[in-house]
Amino acid sequence: MRGRDDLAGDGADARKTTGDLPARPVRRRPKNRRAQIAAAAANAFGSLGYHGVSMEDIAGGLGISSAALYRHYPSKYALFQEESLRVGQAMAESVRLPADATEQPPQQALQQVLEALSTVTVANRASVALVRWEGRYLEPADREIRAEQQTAVLDALESRLAAYSPGLGNGDRKVLAISLLSAITSIADHHATLPTKPLVALLVSTCTGLAALTLPPPVDIAPAPPVEIPESFKHELLLRKGVELFHARGYPNVSVEDIATAAGLSAASAVYRFYRGKSDLLTAAFRRAAERVSSAIGPAVAAATGPQEALDSLIDQYVAGSFAERELTFVYYTEFQHVPAEERAALRNVQRLSVDEWARLVRQVRPDLSGPQARFLVHAAFALVVDLGRSFGTVPLSSQERVTLLMQTILYGHPAGG
Questions:
Q1: Average pLDDT score, the chain
Q2: Main-chain phi, psi angles of 267, to 5 degrees
Q3: The domain spanning residue 360 has which CATH number?
Q4: What is the pTM of this model?
Q5: In the listed set 183, 211, 239, which residue is the last one of a domain according to the structure?
């Protein structure tokens, strides 16, 4: 049997052979761990969507165990809900003018609100994606809170616009308020980068141009009826019905059985004659949307006498295509994270090249802009179309002529010919 002295001797010898290594530092839990978790979750949700992220993904990204994560948040939904409502509240609070600013000249007050909203949005860029696209996955009570936050922001913008342009009608104020919010929050839709101060300045300048715009009277034009698809052309019919369901319910809430039923097929197995599954169908929809934009660029540039004429043609085609396929335009923005990973790289490349070509034309019209600034404006112009579409649908307030004018104002800094 070995005694205490033997054990002590073994320990001493061990210290000699290891060179008296220092004691391992004690790992302490960071004081801001909850904030770190919220930030990591916002990035994950923003990139992959609420349904594309698990608690294990968030924990792994932070280098902690799932058990440690659950000590702070009881569920993925709790994380999603807290971050969605937090950034929504931050945006709502940013547009409240302080008491000592209520007597400011209207232009100065509008400027202050735009700067505050832009600053908060830039500071919370990853989380703003939750506010823009993932809100439908909030539970009803939380969705109501989120709607109240959105209303507070839009009401504040409308109030500032009413003071800035007293002649604006109620409908025009609504269109412009949504356009301002869209231009600012569009930064959550892409990964182009600019330092904070220049980015805030660009957003405020863009919004100031929109606020000064005189919109033409709304025109009540009946939307063109959708092109009839023969019942025998099941491949195309499935694509349309799938997109309609993804738009109405969200991709995760649609089954192959739902798509089959909507297309008049007797069984879900019939879908697999045309698509390998609903993700294959979603990929086909994304390819169509991406190609609609990319394929227009070459002919528009070739037929134009200059960059602005080419851009005017591209804007007209983009707006017309978006009006003709509203559901596809919306799905293109909301469901990208559900496209199979192997397809995303190719789609992203098509998207990036299209934006780069638009940005190149914008810089030829406005040589004062940098490449990143032009890309931000192109993304803002694209986002405007889907945001007005989901706010007004086919209501004349967002007629094609008006949307075209708003896109031109974002890209040129003024309407075409203005």
A1: 87
A2: -150, 155
A3: 1.10.357.10
A4: 0.86
A5: 211
